[in-house]
Amino acid sequence: MIARQPMLEHDPRERIRNFDEVALGYDAERAVLEAERCLQCENPTCMKGCPVNIDIPGFIAHIKEGNFDLAIRKIKEKNHLPAICGRVCPVKDQCEKFCVLAKKGEPVAIGNLERFASDYEWKKGVEIPRKAEASGKRVAIAGSGPAGLTAAADLVKLGHEVTIFEALHVPGGVLTYGIPEFRLPKKVVEREVEYIKRLGVDIRTDMVIGRTITADELLRQGFDAIFVGTGAGPPQFLGVPGENLGLVYSANEFLTRVNLMQAYEFPEYDTPIKVGKKVAVIGAGNVAFDAARTALRLGARDVSIVYRRSEEEIPARIEEVHHAEEEGVKLRLLTLPTRMLGEGGLVRRMECIKMSLGKPDESGRRRPIPVKGSEFYIDTDTVIVAIGRKPNPLIQQTTEGLKTTSWGTIVADDFGQTSRSGIFAGGDVVTGEATVIEAMGAGKRAAEAIDRFIKQRKKH
Amino acid sequence: MTYKIVSKKELAPTIKMFEMGAPVVARKAKAGQFVILRIKERGERIPLTIADANPERGAITLVVEEIGKTTKELGRLNEGDSVLDLVGPLGNPMDIRKYGRVVCIGGGSGVAPVYPLTKALKKAGNKVTSIIGAKTRELLILEGEMQETSDEFYITTDDGSKGHRGFVTDILRKLLDEGKQIDLVVAVGPVPMMKAVADTTKPNKIRTLVSLNPIMVDGMGMCGACRVTVGEKTKFTCVDGPLFDGHLVDFDELAARRQLYEPEEKRALKAYEEKIGGADDS
User: Does A269 sit within 8 Å of B42, measured CB to CB?
Assistant: First the structure.
């Protein structure tokens, strides 16, 4: 039996000095070898782990035969952003988790193969599929993250006129401002956005739905339906004393400065960024690891992840945890900051308390409990808080009759239907912070529902 | 899409007023709101208050004080030039209604953001007393506009070159000492000035609104760069403000956070000035 083909990667000692992509992908030979490992199951279980339902054995069979054009075409029947998914999907919890080979050994590297097929297509020149006849219907999409881009692509292919409204100056949402260059190069995001535009989607930046124009105004202006994919919004802070000291960042600010504003190239780019020598990142999700690895690349000597639970509960993608550890990021587990202390307005120390794990809580993870009298200090000159984000509130606040939960997420069914007729929603603004591929799945299902909705509506 | 400079006027040697073509923003803008602007591809995002909006002309007015690289670069742009991005209106508008007697205070380039508030308050039937201050007479801006929308009008300069010699708070104190009924004070300007105004009105428990000016990045509530402590709670200026109760604001924290990037800002400005050094400014 052939072993799972590893991807080539940049050396950790070299790569922490730059923002280049860490994983280098497969060459054709490796891709074919890996594809040969697929058993081509008659009832493929891998597919139930894919939120957008890609015909996985189908595209892998094409790779095995060396017919890469057919492989990418097969993927794109379901997924418009394969270069992104092949890089950032938590495959070990999705498709690869359900691969039959996973039971006895290593699953087929589905994500790597998807990435290979998409990178192959890009080198060769991207094909633009045919669209359905123009329907004369117009759909507005708020937010150009994974949910919005997917919904837009599906709807435009069905013949509808689609306009995406994006609040920032560049489309892509979290793909642009959140996930760093070394994990998802911006040129990959740009090329996928370019593809969506070439399908015929109009993207308007600098437009904040809820401020610049409201959802109801869009409906009055003649849009037949709206999809809200505005994602996660305000970052959460710990709420401990000293949290507003200088050089205490939210991960969102830190990553936005670096990724969206390219602050790592200051002063060639105008936005500055600052990190000290000892950086503490609070939290252990993907965002925390992205922030920690970014801090290293900005020149920090000592970077640690401070997490209140144990290694077992770390929610980040396993691969990225490994990458971070290889690069020298330390884990300080079962630790909760209780206070930040400063000097001259800048953070200098964190008071922390040790935690122990109790019984599982609502999330199914063991609840961390502070250990009395275990207070200690961590010296640090930069703190990055990455403990999650609340849903984006703007559209909810400015749209009459749009039902929300107590947490602020929009209430929507599996197909994105909200409490308002004509308004659909999906992705993090509905589920709270989740994954890129789950947002894409939500965008896809909403697109189907929107298509049905606008076709049923009487012509006006 | 780009945003064109429709007209430009020099208000003071380092303060320029631009009318920018931005029809959707102009239609929506209300007193107290701001925009985020980015000049060019490698530029940073900076917040600027909307000093005026003209929906018919599809334009908004912005006042820019040249204090760093980006504002200096903006100051060199002329009528017909464009900026790459302009998004808004952002922040919460002021609750404009009839309060009674309102004192509007603007310090330095802070007169620009206080002007639309003054105008709206006057229009809503308030008796308006305005106090505008600057270091010296050359730096006084929007004097005519402010006077026109006020029932009572005072000027102060630090050096006494025009109006009262001293600070805006001297006049405010005088009004309070005279026992004048004041229902609301609105102050916009440098942090020490807003703090001094809040300290002046606090003993008399006169409601005092300040428009805060922390560092911002996205301006839409996504990052918390602009967070401030108000009444012991953390607030994001861009979505919860920019207007806050001056008696509850931690001004010292705001001042410290504003200085965070001072060395970088100086470095960027120096590099820019060296670059344009030979260029003809006229």
Answer: yes
- The structure tokens 């229902």 sit at B183
Residue A139 host element (H or E): strand A138-142
To test the contact with chain A by mutation, choose from B73, B217, B229 the residue with the greatest count of A C-beta atoms within 10 A, namely B217
Answer whether the bond into residue B113 is a cis peptide, omega within 30°: no
Report the 10 Å Cβ neighbour count for A331. 17
Q: Is residue A449 within 8 Å of residue A416, measured between CB atoms?
A: yes
CB contact under 8 A, A267 and B268: yes
Question: Is the CB of residue A144 less than 8 Å from the CB of residue A166?
Answer: yes
pLDDT over threshold 80, residue B280: no
ipTM confidence score: 0.94
Partners of residue B241 in chain A, C-beta under 8 Å: none
d(C-alpha A66, C-alpha B109), whole Å? 66
Rounded to whole angstroms, how far apart are CA atoms B14 and A109?
Answer: 60
Least CA distance to B254: which residue of chain A?
A244
Which of B84, B218, B221 lies closest to A168 in CB terms?
Answer: B218
| Chain B CB within 8 Å of residue A159 CB | no
Distance CA B76, CA B281 (A): 8
In a mutational test of the B interface, the residue from A144, A169, A257 whose CB has the highest number of chain B CBs within 10 Å is A169
State the pLDDT at residue A126. 84
| C-alpha torsion angle, residues A417, A422, A428, A434 (rounded to 10) | 40
Whole-number pLDDT of residue A131: 82
pTM of the shown model? 0.95
Average of per-residue pLDDT across B214-232: 96
The pLDDT-based confidence of B279 (bands split at 50, 70, 90) is low
How far apart (Å, rounded) are the C-alpha atoms in residues A28 and B258?
Answer: 53
